[in-house]
């Protein structure tokens, strides 16, 4: 039979089968016309069940994310999140350009909201931030050259500081500020620091002390500052990574009037800052989830599933029937979509992740690759689609045709998928998605449209 005639037969019967397009079909179907003994192709759609669990990512890079993330927030299902920021600072210049008769006045830190004016949590309450002097050198770890480099997740690409790392700082704060985080209108947060701290640097500059003669010497003398939230805070704020410290002085000018000036220290180099993100899930369904116990089944978390940036919560999915289905030789895949529905969370201006990505894990649960955009090598990102009055849930949709077609090849055999937020927000925010629940099951489904030949 000619190819044109075959398409005519398919067109005749397409009206009959469109009524069954959104039902699962489990038996072979063949069609013949006028006793022509030839197999006819028919299109079906199947929905595959997806098994889920909650998975704890580890080794989350935090250095150079260009986000100073500071604050603490309490969430009902996931407990508390606390983020402190560590920054190395440098002088704007190492020449003594302070006038000879100048006197030290004060020292202060200036923090500014980032461009997105990011926040996660309750901004109606008063917040407190403290500045501490770091006493331990902030150093990077190169997991890729370590003896256990085979444990490095795909998102670790070089030397970094991980978000769970801490470095020592002086327990006595250099300065404290209490303020209302009016994120849409606030221009800056000004924190006055201890005079002795500023005067010491001022005097060293005036005396041409070796500790302020070059960048390396200065970083040995002042290893950095830490911005730490109070335990009673209710919001995590996103700040610019160009934090500025002003050493303020004054002197009498040529006209006899007092003139003010300042020597500036800043964290202008983004690879000099990182965020330490802590979590406490005690008393929640996720209390047992941690770096040592990294996977909990859906039933163990009271039939709840989340995805959260910063703390490394991902949702792991398995599709048990997929491998066997793709072993059939008489099917051709036309379309494959993974649909994830999420409930609305009201924690901030960008509480819902703007996008999600899929990581491929080996049989040990290690993320070894990403799901790419079909016909491409770029990481596929599913954008957030908000709910409507009719369908209240938001959703994310992935094109999985490449993964489906290669599920039984060396590329994907014996692998599972991890749903996480996209980079760089997975490292620089605490945005959270709660997967919707229906009849005690997560609303994650895989729809495959395929053509079947007898």
UniProtKB/TrEMBL annotation:
The lineage of its organism: Bacteria, Pseudomonadati, Bacteroidota, Sphingobacteriia, Sphingobacteriales. InterPro entries: DUF4270 (IPR025366). It comes from the Bacteria. It comes from Sphingobacterium bovistauri. This is DUF4270 family protein. Pfam families: DUF4270.
